[in-house]
Write a structure and sequence with these properties.
This protein is an alpha+beta fold. The protein has helices spanning 2-9, 18-39, 55-83, 89-114, 122-169, and strands spanning 171-175, 182-186, 190-196, 199-206, 209-213.
Length: 214
């Protein structure tokens, strides 16, 4: 139980940026019509094997994508910031459940508007909830994995950059034997040090120009 509680308290970064939100909204709006047109699941073709894609059918399927787009836009940019103040996994699960329920309800409403409310029953709505959740999990999972990839890639780039940043912040201080001449340069600007009889020559960069000091 302790491990589960710790997991639920962890911060969720997914859908915190506008980029993530718009990626989800646009992908959902494109995925849903294509999925319905290609696979024609859930009886959208009235289980007719000879069914062909007419202009009305095409517009109707595009309408489902538009409905999802509108619902997600309002939900993610208006409702979520107002309702959810924390972004841990326990809140995120509730956030997603409410989102899927809203999508299912408005999809069900749009479906009945198209069909003159021929299937306006609670049992049908429950079927819609189940089917919409199954269908929505596909694009949601893809966007989630894509977001995780971007976060991991960004973290990797920062890790690669850290040694370079640390290097530029380290200075070495050089001075002549009598202490009259001093030189402070970063390790990143130091090219090499060369022996010159009883002295040394320090070759380094200064504003991109190679210089040497004795």
């Amino acid at each position: 139980m302790g491990a589960i509680q710790n997991f639920l308290k962890k911060e969720v970064l997914f859908l915190q940026s506008k980029r993530d939100k718009w990626s989800l909204i646009i992908f959902m709006a494109v995925f849903v019509p294509l999925f319905l047109l290609i696979f024609q699941p859930f009886g959208v073709n009235n289980f007719d094997p000879s069914h062909h894609i007419s202009n009305i059918f095409l517009i109707s399927m595009l309408g489902f994508g538009i409905v999802k787009c509108l619902v997600l836009t309002v939900y993610e940019f208006v409702i979520v910031p107002f309702v959810f103040k924390k972004y841990n996994w326990s809140i995120f699960i509730l956030w997603m459940l409410l989102e899927l329920l809203l999508i299912a309800f408005f999809t069900f409403l749009f479906y009945n508007v198209l069909g003159n409310f021929h299937d306006w029953y609670f049992s049908s709505f429950l079927d819609f909830v189940f089917n919409i959740i199954l269908m929505s999990l596909i694009p949601l999972s893809i966007i989630f994995l894509y977001s995780k990839y971007r976060q991991t890639h960004k973290a990797y780039q920062l890790l690669e950059l850290q040694p370079k940043l640390a290097l530029t912040e380290k200075y070495i201080n050089l001075q002549s034997y009598n202490g009259n001449e001093k030189l402070a340069i970063t390790l990143a600007d130091l090219l090499y040090i060369e022996a010159e009889d009883n002295d040394i020559s320090v070759h380094h960069l200064e504003k991109g120009i190679v210089k040497n000091n004795y």
